[in-house]
Every structure is written in C-alpha cells, then in structure tokens.
Amino acid sequence: MSSDTAVTITREDGESKGRYVARVEGIAETAEMTYSRAGTSRIIIDHTGVPTAMRGMGVGEKLVRRGVEDARKEGVKIIPLCPFAKATIEKHEELQDVLN
Q1: Is residue 24 within 8 Å of residue 7, measured between CB atoms?
Q2: What separation, in Å, do the N-terminal and C-terminal C-alpha atoms of the chain show?
Q3: Which domains does the chain have, with CATH numbers?
Q4: CA–CA separation, 23 vs 19, rounded Å?
Q5: Along the 100 residues of the chain, how does pLDDT read in single tens digits?
Q6: Disulfide check for 85: which of 1, 15, 45, 49 has CB 3.0–4.6 Å away?
C-alpha cells in the first residue's frame, strides 16, 4: 500500500485532552495522535503512534495534517512536543502557520 491509501480519521475531543484515531480498511490496529489543551488558544500534540502494519502509508502525516486543519478552523496554535509531529510540521512549510 502507498501513501495514497484511504485513511479514515476520527477525533475524540475531551475537555482537556483529545486524540485523533486513524483506521485503514483491512487492518485491525489503529494509529493515534494525542493532544492536551493549554488554555483556550493552544493545543500540545504529545504523542503520535502508528502500528507496524500501517508504516509507510503516510498515516502519521495524515494525522498531523488533520490536527493542523482543525487548529486553523478553531483558531488555536499548536505546540508540537511529539518529535514526529514537530518534524512533520518543520518539514512542510505550509503547516507552520499554526505553530505557537
């Protein structure tokens, strides 16, 4: 499978924490990116986990991009403490407008 693989991402948003969950058809495991709220204007992405079965499909990057899209819609900034999220945002200039 390639990075063009169809990935379904859902968001579970709580009062102070949340996560994005990615599913790929035919794979029982899920990938996730977790975050915490830092006040009303920032979120901290603290973890991205992609199971071995999903590696090489671009799932992690799709999770980060979804988080960036949502941050833009909600007018919040992102503090990427997760090394993967930080590297992904730094690698793609078009994602950097949401950095705190």
Answers
A1: yes
A2: 34
A3: 7-98 (3.40.630.30)
A4: 13
A5: 444 668 999 999 999 999 999 999 999 999 999 999 999 999 999 999 999 999 999 999 999 999 999 999 999 999 999 999 999 999 999 999 999 8
A6: 45
